[in-house]
């Protein structure tokens, strides 16, 4: 067995039934984001704000328990909580800021998808992961041209499209492995 085949088997062994289920879930969430992008934009900002808030509270608890004199840790906790509250109070500017972060995320996602496609090549469904990478790259480029004026619609639309194609890529890999 060649080294490439062993590497492919190791990587493909990480995918299983959960790959199909997550793929279907991502397809459904992506479809919802494409149909109602403004709702997906607001949902994305609200979800992100609550994650930051929870992270700030957890970091504050950690700091209180283990490093009460850690000034930097208290600043980190305070900043996370403050940013999350500002995001909840001012969702429109938050969507614009998140739009810029989303463009960066899509660039990273594209790079990661290309690396994963390359690492599983020539196994079945490698093309779908490469196609997912191309889609993420195209979305990132298009997103940067309209920023910030188109952020309200594009954040939700692009999150939806990215979830949709991530879902199809995962579903295709999971389906191919299920048949094998």
TrEMBL record:
InterPro entries: Acid_resist_chaperone_HdeD, DUF308_memb. Pfam families: DUF308 (PF03729). It comes from Glaciecola nitratireducens (strain JCM 12485 / KCTC 12276 / FR1064). GO terms for cellular component: plasma membrane. The chain crosses the membrane at residues 20-39, 45-64, 71-91, 97-117, 126-147, 153-177. Keywords: Membrane, Transmembrane, Transmembrane helix. This is Acid-resistance membrane protein. The lineage of its organism: Bacteria, Pseudomonadati, Pseudomonadota, Gammaproteobacteria, Alteromonadales. It comes from the Bacteria.
């Amino acid at each position: 067995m060649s080294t490439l085949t062993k590497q492919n088997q190791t990587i493909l062994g990480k995918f299983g039934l959960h790959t199909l289920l997550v793929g279907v879930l991502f397809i459904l969430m992506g479809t919802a984001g494409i149909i109602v992008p403004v709702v997906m934009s607001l949902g994305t900002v609200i979800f992100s704000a609550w994650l930051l808030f929870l992270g700030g509270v957890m970091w504050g608890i950690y700091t209180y328990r283990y490093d009460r004199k850690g000034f930097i840790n208290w600043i980190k906790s305070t900043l996370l909580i403050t940013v999350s509250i500002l995001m909840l109070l001012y969702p429109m500017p938050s969507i614009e800021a998140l739009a810029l972060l989303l463009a960066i995320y899509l660039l990273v996602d594209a790079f990661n998808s290309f690396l994963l496609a390359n690492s599983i090549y020539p196994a079945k469904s490698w093309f779908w992961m490469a196609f997912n990478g191309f889609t993420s790259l195209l979305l990132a480029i298009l997103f940067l041209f309209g920023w910030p004026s188109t952020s309200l619609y594009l954040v939700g639309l692009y999150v939806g499209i990215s979830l949709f194609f991530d879902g199809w890529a995962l579903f295709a890999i999971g389906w191919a492995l299920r048949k094998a």
